[in-house]
Amino acid sequence: MNTFGGYRVQGRGDDAERIRRDAGPVMEAGAFSVVLETVPEQLAQAITAQIAIPTIGIGAWLACDGPMVDDGMGMFTRFRPKFVKRHTEPGSEGEAAIAAYAADVRDRRFPAAEHVYATASRAGDLA
């Protein structure tokens, strides 16, 4: 969304036709789903009916095959768009886990020997 200048509705006016038209080629290119973020419900309905892969909605999910889980699970703590209903708040715990992981990588505590497969020089270790 930062590409478009923040969280504002996309797909109004002429932009709606461009977004709808792009959905088919995205599917044909091999995508397993299309995320429709902050688009009007009518556009989300049209795209969902048009393509054979699931549509995931962010702020448009009633017309999609399903909602984006991250928002409702509280994975982001810095902001809460108006379309989000939080069911839990694990975001701060996740941020702490990511910080611990980054510290382990920086300090070379992870990965350690027990986290990798043996090389040919350690063939005796293989079962």
Average pLDDT for all residues: 79
Helix content: 25-40%
Give the uncertain stretches in residue-range form. none
Q: Major sheet: order of its strands?
A: 1-2-3
| Total domain count | 2
Measured distance between first and last alpha carbons = 49 Å
Order of SSEs: HEHEEHH
Structure description:
With 127 residues, the chain is mainly alpha-helical. It has two domains: 1-67, no CATH class; 69-111, no CATH class. Helices cover 35% and strands 8% of the residues. It has four helices and three strands. Strands 1-2-3 form a three-stranded parallel β-sheet. Helix 2 (41-50) links the parallel strand 1 and strand 2 (55-58). The chain is extended. The termini are far apart. The mean pLDDT is 79. Pfam families: Pantoate_transf. This is 3-methyl-2-oxobutanoate hydroxymethyltransferase. Its EC number is 2.1.2.11.
Which terms would index this structure?
single chain, 127 residues, mainly alpha, three-stranded parallel sheet, 4 helices, 3 strands, magnesium ion binding, Pantoate_hydroxy_MeTrfase, pantothenate biosynthesis
Describe the structure concisely for a colleague.
This protein has 127 residues and is mainly alpha-helical. The chain has two domains: 1-67, no CATH class; 69-111, no CATH class.
Topology, pairings included?
Blueprint: H1 14-28, E1 34-37, H2 41-50, E2 55-58, E3 66-67, H3 69-72, H4 91-106
Parallel strand pairs: 1-2, 2-3
GO molecular function, one term: 3-methyl-2-oxobutanoate hydroxymethyltransferase activity
Keywords: Pantothenate biosynthesis, Transferase
Organism: Mesorhizobium kowhaii
